[in-house]
Amino acid sequence: MTPSTPTGLERYRPLIPDWDEFLAACKRPLSTDLRTNTLRINPDDLRDRLLGKGIRVEPFAWEPTYFRTTRTVGATVEHWAGLFYLQEVVQSVPVAALDPQPGELVLDLCAAPGGKATDIAARMRNRGCLVANEPNGRRQQALLANVNRIGAWNIAISEYRGQDFPIGDGFDRVLVDAPCSAEGTLRKEPSLRGGALPSAIRRLAGIQQMLILRAFDLLRVGGRLVYSTCTFAPEENEAIVAYLLERRRARVLPISASFPHASGVTAWGDTAYPSEVSDCVRIYPHHLDSGGGFVARIERLA
Ligand SMILES: C[S@@+](CC[C@H](N)C(=O)[O-])C[C@H]1O[C@@H](n2cnc3c(N)ncnc32)[C@H](O)[C@@H]1O
Question: Is the domain defined by 30-86 classed in CATH 3.30.70.1170?
């Protein structure tokens, strides 16, 4: 890297045409989003219950199980009883792209603390089987607590490193919500406001390459893989999808997204990625006034 090469967040300026809006959103405090646990209550009844306590929540037209509020809602009986999960609306995008169905065999390869796993279980109506894998013992405790609170009874918990998950029956769907440099969480994690360290990005990209290959090999033919991160770095996003496309018979599927977003980038520095990665979705903090993220939807070909 030459001394004039932009570093930190500044290196993303060429990717983000609405740069000033991006910077302004990064500096704003976050609202609170919550996802209705449809295994226990429907969104209208939850909204009425919260309103009865003087807590006003606003719905999202494109994701009706989610609400936004400016109030603190963690210390309520509704939260303790598992009527909702505190989770930014951006977290709904990978699970909606996965589109898990009741009765299927589904794997969440990097599952703790369980925000997406409990959403998957709810979309499966607790039918079929979801394997929620998490190698970190402490984080696994949080996963277990959330699974119990939400009442997601179709979940089995495993503790492999994702790259070592044993190949067996083919899964219908696999989610890799990868460990990443998490730049998209900078609104709640001030240490990330300057962007991630290049050494961290390189280390994580090595793990992500192993995870995406193993996740793909765990699918049945015709099965769907969703790869997601909460970071902006193309080295951890489009480059990882391109790495898979070079090594396996896979294709990127479009994601139906009726909310503001950007497309996957097909070039970064001196590197060009296959044109199909433009079907991936990038979400910046100003798009949903939330955190940021990246989502790819991939099919295993015969
Ligand atoms: C972004 S977090 C997952 C968040 C989770 N999907 C949710 O929605 O609540 C990534 C997780 O991957 C786990 N992880 C780290 N290295 C891993 C590996 N080699 N294989 C599988 N999971 C790993 C981390 O411990 C962390 O819990």
Answer: yes
